[in-house]
From TrEMBL:
The record marks 256 as: Interaction with DNA substrate. The record marks 226 as: Important for catalytic activity. Pfam families: Exo_endo_phos. This is Exodeoxyribonuclease III. Its cofactor is Mg(2+); Mn(2+). Probably binds two magnesium or manganese ions per subunit. Mg(2+) binds at residues 9, 36, 152, 154, 255-256. The keyword Membrane does not apply. GO terms for molecular function: DNA binding; double-stranded DNA 3'-5' DNA exonuclease activity; endonuclease activity; metal ion binding.
Length: 265
DNA sequence: ATGGTAGTCGCACTA
């Protein structure tokens, strides 16, 4: 069976439920993983998603900040959320589907402006979060052979995941300490970068453009912060990926666009 | 080198 999974940092799901519905109607993924829903669970727009054909909802919300959710056509067998770095932040959800397939949805901390863990506690938090993910991968690697991890990782790991490798080497999201650490996370579970499986690393590819640019499209100073990784056992079933650049130009857009993967499971 | 925009039960914080 082929399934399609989408991941999208929506930057307030209540404000943007209209473009979520538009996206689901147009693309009809089986599963949508959202980050930065910016709402408590009770205010999550459940009805809109159920009516759009996504009756299975897992929500990890918090007031004002962060928050992740998974909306699915397929039922879940289990739902879990981990408290990473013991911060109490809503940055993670895990669901297992009925066939055993495992899906983790992450919103990794952005890390603030200064790439110094001593001067900047938010950067320290981000590094600790990534280190916990390394240990998590090592723990599960032997037992979880059919797993997918998606989300806003807030790291653009490759040279062509940013508009200028040289200019961004000291900019949080592309510093060597972060890209090396994300490499350790990837190696810890042998994750395959499903998007770069199809788009060669020599080709520029972005999933985020700052709101602060006067003309995001013309300047095109993007970064690839949103990712979909699969275990080696699933990599043989990879069918296609899409990164919906046009969504950045929609009415009242998120600063991130949806990233999608279709695979045989 | 700076400041630019967006969202959230605001008067600050996160991104």
């Amino acid at each position: 069976m082929a399934i399609t999974i989408a991941t999208w940092n929506i930057n307030s799901v209540r404000l943007r439920i209209g473009i979520v519905e538009q996206f689901l109607a147009a693309e009809s993924p089986d599963v949508l993983c959202l980050q930065e829903i910016k709402t408590i669970d009770d205010s999550f727009p459940r009805k809109a998603l159920i009516e759009a054909g996504y009756p299975h909802l897992a929500i990890a919300g918090q007031k004002g900040y962060h928050g992740v959710a998974i909306a699915s056509k397929l039922p879940f067998k289990t739902v879990e959320k981990d408290d990473w770095v013991a911060m109490g932040d809503a940055r993670h959800l895990r669901v297992r589907f009925e066939d055993g397939l495992l899906l983790d949805n992450f919103y990794i901390p952005a890390g603030g402006d200064e790439p110094d863990p001593v001067a900047n506690p938010k950067f320290d938090h981000k590094l600790k979060f990534l280190r916990e993910m390394v240990a998590w991968g090592e723990r599960r690697r032997a037992s979880e052979k059919r797993a997918i991890v998606v989300g806003d990782f807030n790291v653009a790991p490759l040279e062509h995941d940013v508009w200028s490798h040289k200019k961004l080497l000291d900019v949080v999201s592309h510093t060597p300490i972060e890209t090396n650490l994300l490499g350790e996370v990837q190696a810890a579970h042998d994750w395959v970068d499903a998007v770069r499986h199809f788009v060669p690393p020599s080709e520029k590819l972005y999933s985020w453009w700052s709101y602060r640019a006067a003309d995001w499209n013309a300047a095109d100073k993007g970064r690839r912060l949103d990712h979909i990784w699969v275990t080696p056992d699933l990599a043989g079933g990879l069918v296609s990926t899409r990164t919906l650049r046009e969504a950045r130009g929609w009415e009242k857009p998120s600063d991130h666009v949806p990233v999608m993967l279709t695979l045989e499971v």
